[in-house]
Specification:
This protein is an alpha+beta fold and 430 residues long. It has an eight-stranded mixed β-sheet, with helices on both faces. A four-stranded antiparallel β-sheet has the order 12-14-10-15. It has helices spanning 3-20, 26-48, 57-69, 136-151, 179-185, 245-263, 302-322, 342-356, 373-379, 412-428, and strands at 73-78, 82-88, 91-101, 120-123, 126-129, 158-166, 196-207, 211-213, 216-219, 221-230, 234-235, 271-280, 286-287, 290-299, 326-335, 338-340, 361-363, 382-390. It contains ten helices and 18 strands. Residues 2-19 have low confidence and may be disordered. β1 and β2 form a beta hairpin.
C-alpha cells in the first residue's frame, strides 16, 4: 500500500468510524454527571407539585426562573403556560429544538415514595388526585439539565438551540386550545426557524440504560369520536312499541370492529377502534330514546386512517337505520402520527449508540399510544425516542397513566447526556 492509498484508507476509516459511533464529548459527559443530583431534585419537586394541562402555572414559573438564571432568552406564557428559551451558540448555524412536556394527569398516586403527590382538584366535576403518572416531571428536569449544560458550553455549538417546555400534552380541558398545536399556531417553530426537533419519553417498561426507537411511524394518530344514537322510548316490557338505542349501540360497536378485523390491512400497520364510554337510560324497565358513545381510533398509516374513518362514517348511520333508528358520528383529531424522519434517525442514531452503547439501543415496534409531538413533526423533521426508566429487578412495572406508575431516577442521566449531545452533533454536522 503506497502512502497516498494509505492516507485515503485512514480518511475513509475515520469517516466510517464516526458514522458508526459518535462518542459523547468528555466535557459534556462530566457536566452531565455533575448535574445528576440536581436533576433528580428538580424531578422530585415537580413530582410532588403536579399541575394539570393548561394549569401548569407554578411549574412554568420554576422552569422560567431556571432558564433566566442561565442567561437565556426566555419567553413565557406561550400556548398559555408554555416556556421557550433560546441559546445562541458560539458560531452561526442552523436551529435545533429540544422539547419536554410539562403537564400531569388526574390520577391519584398510590406509590410510597417520600415525594409522592397528595394534591387533589376537581376535574370534569369529579374530585380527583393529581400526579405525574406519565413521567413528564422527568422530561422537564432532563431538559432543564440540558439547558444548563449547553449554556456553559456555547463554544461547542454551531447554531442555535431552542428549548420548548410544552404544556397540555395530555390534552387541554374541554373548550380550550392547548398543547403543541397551539404552540405552533403562536409561532414556536419560527424566529429563528427550527430545522429539526428532538424529544424523548421516559418508559416504565424499558430497563434503565436502554433506548427504544423506530424510524417512520412510531406512535399512532389519535382520533376521538362521539356517536349519538336516536331511538324511540317505550316501556321495557314492550320493546316492539319503540326503537331501542342500546341495542343499536351494541350492533354499532360490533360492526365497527369488523372494519379492523376484515377491512384493514393489519400486515402493514396496526389499527384500533375502541368505544370507551356508553351512556343511556335512567331506569331498568324503560327503553330510553337515545344513547351516546365515546371512543378512540388509533392508526399508524395515513391511508389506513382515511379508510377507517370513511367506513365508520358510512357504517354508523347505516346500522342505526337498519334497526329503525338514527345515528351521527363526529371526530376530533387529538394527535397525528408520530413520524420519525428516517434520514434524521439514520444521521443521529450513531450519537445515541455511542453514548448508550450500540447493544442498548433497540429498534422497536410501533405503539398505538399517541403523542402531540407529532404536530411538530408535521412541520419539521423530528426524532422521538424512548428512555428506559425501569429497574432491571422490577418484574411487572405498572403502566403509564396508573396510580402506581414508578420511574427509576437513575435513568435520567442517560437522557441528559443524549439530548445534550444530539443538539451539539446535529448543529455541528450542518
Amino acid at each position: 500500500m503506497n502512502t497516498n492509498t494509505y492516507r485515503i484508507f485512514l480518511i475513509v476509516f475515520s469517516i466510517f468510524g464516526i458514522a458508526q459511533s459518535q462518542q459523547i464529548d468528555p466535557e459534556i459527559n462530566t457536566a452531565a454527571e455533575k448535574i445528576e443530583t440536581k436533576v433528580i431534585e428538580w424531578r422530585r419537586d415537580f413530582h410532588q407539585n403536579p399541575e394539570l394541562s393548561n394549569r401548569e402555572f407554578k411549574t412554568a414559573k420554576k422552569i422560567a426562573e431556571h432558564l433566566k438564571g442561565l442567561g437565556l432568552e426566555v419567553t413565557e406564557q406561550v400556548a398559555k403556560t408554555g416556556v421557550v428559551a433560546i441559546l445562541k451558540g458560539g458560531k452561526e448555524g442552523k436551529t435545533v429544538a429540544l422539547r419536554a412536556d410539562i403537564d400531569a394527569l388526574p390520577v391519584t398516586e398510590k406509590t410510597d415514595v417520600p415525594f409522592k403527590s397528595t394534591l387533589k382538584t376537581t376535574f370534569l366535576d369529579t374530585e380527583v388526585g393529581i400526579s405525574h403518572a406519565c413521567g413528564h416531571d422527568t422530561h422537564i428536569s432532563i431538559l432543564m439539565g440540558v439547558a444548563e449544560i449547553l449554556s456553559k458550553h456555547k463554544n461547542k455549538i454551531k447554531g442555535t438551540v431552542k428549548f420548548i417546555f410544552q404544556p397540555a400534552e395530555e390534552g387541554p380541558p374541554p373548550g380550550e386550545e392547548g398543547g403543541a398545536k397551539l404552540m405552533i399556531k403562536e409561532g414556536v417553530l419560527k424566529n429563528p426557524d427550527v430545522d429539526a426537533i428532538f424529544g424523548l419519553h421516559i418508559n416504565s417498561g424499558t430497563d434503565v440504560g436502554k433506548i427504544r426507537y423506530k424510524p417512520g411511524g412510531t406512535m399512532a394518530a389519535v382520533e376521538r369520536f362521539v356517536i349519538n344514537v336516536k331511538g324511540k322510548q317505550t316501556h321495557g316490557s314492550a320493546p316492539w312499541s319503540g326503537v331501542d338505542p342500546i341495542l343499536i349501540s351494541a350492533k354499532i360497536i360490533d360492526g365497527l370492529q369488523t372494519i379492523i378485523s376484515r377491512e384493514s390491512p393489519l400486515v402493514d400497520e396496526a389499527a384500533v377502534i375502541t368505544v370507551g364510554k356508553i351512556t343511556s337510560g335512567v331506569r331498568f324497565n324503560i327503553i330510553p330514546d337515545s344513547s351516546e358513545m365515546i371512543g378512540t381510533v388509533r392508526t399508524l398509516d395515513p391511508s389506513m386512517k382515511a379508510l377507517i374513518i370513511k367506513r365508520m362514517n358510512e357504517m354508523v348511520p347505516a346500522i342505526a337505520k337498519a334497526y329503525g333508528g338514527q345515528a351521527t358520528i363526529d371526530f376530533q383529531n387529538n394527535t397525528s402520527i408520530t413520524y420519525n424522519d428516517p434520514d434524521l434517525v439514520k444521521k443521529m442514531l450513531p450519537t445515541i449508540q455511542g453514548i448508550a452503547g450500540k447493544e442498548n439501543v433497540i429498534l422497536t415496534k410501533a405503539s398505538t399510544g399517541g403523542e402531540d409531538f407529532s404536530y411538530f413533526q408535521e412541520k419539521v423533521p423530528g426524532f422521538y425516542f424512548f428512555l428506559g426508566g425501569k429497574s432491571p429487578e422490577t418484574k411487572n412495572p405498572p403502566s403509564h397513566h396508573t396510580p402506581n406508575f414508578y420511574i427509576d431516577e437513575s435513568g435520567l442521566l442517560l437522557g441528559v447526556k443524549i439530548m445534550s449531545q444530539l443538539a451539539i452533533d446535529y448543529l455541528n454536522a450542518q
